[in-house]
């Protein structure tokens, strides 16, 4: 497969596009004005090893306050809080740490909360790494299109995006915990389009998960699948979904857009 091409037949996955497939030239004729981009596994990947070091530092901090807990217990609590946090159930990081302590059956302690937050600040940016050539790819796109970042993410992710140097590339940053819904809910895409002041047919949504692209298509966005990460088919309603285009790496889209 070339660096970027119309989606092709995947025997047990995507199926062939037939009449839906667009050539590179025909997508150019769509006169795109905007690009909406996912964050996790599209622009950046999660560093599991660094995350374990972060969680170990949290456990160490709890121990210093005579609140000894196993790493496995903390990991389970953080995982249980994640989805609710991405939906906006927690409004700030103080609420987040308060819930963590509650689930660990530890009395809330403002000083301990501050210590835990300092640990998070010291580690959280390092738990995410940009894919190769992401900054140069965004520089290229920024010259031609209005850009929006649209992500399902937990409270505090805005600080991660800042730390990775991504914020200045985007005219709009739409995060699920701030708007109260997760992709593929149509509201999150519509919020991005409203912010960009563009119509859906003028934009393409770029993501690594088919479920995100399904929601994007429902509001009229063009779709581009980046085959990175391991969650391509996670939560997909239709594993035979046919994106307009696909590529193997986020940097490949500059050969096309």
Key descriptive features of the protein:
single chain; 257 residues; alpha/beta; Rossmann fold; 2 domains; seven-stranded mixed sheet; two-stranded antiparallel ribbon; 10 helices; elongated; disordered N terminus
Describe the structure.
There is one protein chain. The chain is an alpha/beta fold. The protein folds into 2 domains: 165 residues, Rossmann fold (3-Layer(aba) Sandwich), CATH 3.40.50.1000; 80 residues. 40% of the residues lie in helices and 14% in strands. The protein contains 10 helices and 9 strands. It has a 7-stranded mixed sheet with strand order 1-9-8-7-2-5-6. A two-stranded antiparallel sheet has the order 3-4. Strand 5, helix 7 and strand 6 form a beta-alpha-beta unit. Helix 3 crosses helix 4. The protein is elongated and about 60 Å long. The N terminus is likely disordered.
Q: Could you give a quick summary of the protein structure above?
A:
40% of the residues lie in helices and 14% in strands. It is of the alpha/beta class and 257 residues long.
Provide the gyration radius in Å. Answer: 20 Å
User: Could you state the order of secondary-structure elements as H and E?
Assistant: EHEEHHHHEHEHEHHEHEE
Structural class: alpha/beta
Query: How many H/I helices?
Result: 10
Supply the number of structural domains. 2
- Which assembly state applies to the chains in this document? single chain
**Name of the CATH architecture of the largest domain:** 3-Layer(aba) Sandwich
Portion in strands = 5-15%
CATH fold field value of the largest domain: Rossmann fold
Can you tell me the CATH superfamily of the largest domain? HAD superfamily/HAD-like
What is the CATH domain class of the largest domain?
A: Alpha Beta
Distance between the termini: 17 Å
Poorly predicted residue ranges: 1-26
Helix content: 40-55%
Mean pLDDT: 89
Main β sheet profile = 7 strands, mixed
Characterize the overall form: elongated
Which sequence of strands runs across the widest sheet?
Answer: 1-9-8-7-2-5-6
What is the count of β-strands? 9
